[in-house]
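User: structure tokens for this one?
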Amino acid sequence: MIPLATEGASWRSLGVKFYVGLSIVVFYAALGTYSMLAGYIGSFESMWEADYLAKPIWVAYIFEPGLPPTIIKRLEEWHVESSNEYITINSHDRYSLNISLKRPGSYVIASAGFEYLYKPARSMVIEYSMQVSSQYSVRYRVNLSIVSDNLLGRFVTVEYGGMKDNITAGRYAVLLAEETIEGGGFKIYNSSIRLPYPFLNRIQEPPIPVLVNPVSDLLLDRGTRIRGIINITYTCMDQSRCGGITLEVRSITVKILGLAHGFMGTDQKGSDIWRQFIEGARVANLFGLTAAATTVLIAISIGSISGFRVGRFSDQVLTFITDTMFFLPALPLIMIATAVLGRSMLVLYGLIVLVSWPGLARLARSWAMAIRGEPYIEAAIAVGAGRLWILRKHVIPRLAPLAIYGLVSLVPGVISTEVLIQFIGFGDPNIPSWGRMLNEAYNEGALINGAWWWLFAPITGITSYMAGFVLMGMALEERLNPKLTLSQRQFK
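Assistant:
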């Protein structure tokens, strides 16, 4: 008697568990597909999409209203605040400016401002691209500052290192350069600076302590306006050949890093956890399903051959190999192998398949033994049918329900093993998986810093994804296991 409960069972009525599990699996499959279509690659390497450990935006909305989101403003509408008598202005668009200064002196160029409506953020990124050029020998000094109109000229009391100090707020220089151009030429200034940057505190006029955060202490306040100001002063080195100088403002961008960001917040590098999460879903789908499918293929092949040739030498060899692999300690084996062979995903893939197939192979062998005892198999052998033909036509097709059940049941084990290996640091550090998210969250102090959302995201993904396959496996087992089916009927 074949241990199948498929006769008389309606596969259309697999029950609520199966369809709930299937819905979860389809959701994560769609999420992984979306990550590929949206081009989400390298989310773990990205930095400063928001501030470090920024909270999910919905948490900020409910519990801490007023936390700033990430604000990106490209400074625009540049204009000269001093006299225009010796100035020629050319503007290609509202973000750039080309200014020719015809007489030595000091000039002030300012941008329009934008309003800041939130609590003070902790950090910001300033990106600038400028060029200073001249056809003559000149000495110049250029200063790029970020200005907060509401705080400009005010003194604020700042506490740092157990001390208090009164510091002039409202202006902070991000570029201070004194250069010389001899016989004509140009100088280019391209940079991206994240504030606070302690070194810049020392170039302020007057210098401020390195422990002062210029973003939260000196620049940002609810309702203030933020703008950029460029001061440029130049003199001619040769008074007999004294000409002009040109300042080209190509682009200056202010990015205020939010304390609330996205659906799942950010990690220690300011990287979006939601993007990491859906990249992890893609890896879970590809790794879990392909590894489980390879495992099922190996297990069904070895189990069917061994069960069909029960008692023969080939059965004894295959059974010995299966039992040996079954009782090997999987985790120590994987740890030693990755230490010797390298922490690549291919090595991890092969090792997980290697330790996962024996259990299903033993079950497939028992099914194949039962199928071999069926009268039509004995009749086929009696009339001279080849063993491979019988395996291909009669035995393996009857193992299809077991293969489906094995595929569904193996995925949670594959995923949990990969997560465990990544978490303890023996996995591939370049693979964007949920296990890597857990490893980085733990090592970077998510628990100590109270960043529960950083741990919540991968744990939720791992638990729900595995639960989907477990629910499907339980529903399939009720159809494939006659003892479970019989007990349910007796209970009803």
